[in-house]
Design goal:
Blueprint lengths: L3 H15 L6 H4 L7 E2 L13 E2 L3 H17 L11 H15 L15 H11 L3 E3 L9 H16 L5 E3 L9 H13 L8 H14 L1
Parallel strand pairs: 3-4
Antiparallel strand pairs: 1-2
């Protein structure tokens, strides 16, 4: 939805469909925006209830606090203005990442904040962030090594990880095929060497 006209069309479709369930507008949209999240009471601990965030002003303050905490512990601070749309998108990214095998394709013009909001959402979920660095001479061998490191970190070391991949980092179409394999099966054929398998098998035995 890139403008108010698009949002209006979507809202009209939603209301039309909701009438089939006997619901009225004020029963669905009881606040300015419908925003849900499990981060409002902090990122630590196992108790993170997924609740509707009715107080918009409180949401803006809370996410601004998360951004401040992120910047205080990061070598690359993000100087962002967390307006309502940005907070709304951050909440959506948080929700997607919290799902089992959650993944998202973020679309937008360059500089619109896709990477920054993903990094912030990862921090709010208390996850690890992994991103490749494409430098001169970067090749498919480097890519496979990076991908293996990320998967081993998530699978063997049990560190929940967000893998952030940008379209400008695509140097070979095979990279997209590898990502597709990860999304479909969680693995990439012929990625691991014989010495890697022992650690994987040991973790598998412990789980059994």
């Amino acid at each position: 939805m890139i403008n108010e006209d698009d949002k209006g069309v979507l809202l009209e479709l939603l209301l039309t469909e909701s009438e089939k369930f006997g619901l009225k507008h004020d029963q669905i949209f009881n606040v300015e925006r419908l925003i849900y999240g499990d981060y409002y009471n902090g990122i630590d601990g196992e108790s993170r209830p997924y609740l509707q965030i009715a107080e918009i002003a409180g949401l803006l303050t809370k996410i601004a606090e998360y951004l401040e905490d992120f910047n205080s512990g990061s070598k690359q601070a993000m100087e962002l203005v967390m307006f309502l749309d940005a907070c709304d998108h951050t909440s959506r990214i948080c929700r997607v990442l919290r799902q089992p095998q959650g993944n998202a394709l973020l679309l937008g013009v360059g500089g619109s904040g896709r990477q920054s909001l993903t990094k912030l959402a990862t921090f709010m979920n208390n996850y690890k962030l992994y991103q490749i660095e494409v430098v001169k001479g970067y090749n498919m061998t480097n890519w496979r090594d990076n991908l293996k490191f990320c998967l081993m970190q998530a699978g063997v070391e049990a560190k929940i990880t967000t893998f952030l991949f940008v379209d400008t980092q695509i140097i070979n179409e095979q990279m997209l095929e590898d990502i597709n394999n990860v999304l479909n099966s969680g693995d990439v054929p012929q990625l691991y060497k014989a010495e890697d398998l022992e650690g994987i098998f040991n973790v598998g035995k412990q789980e059994c």
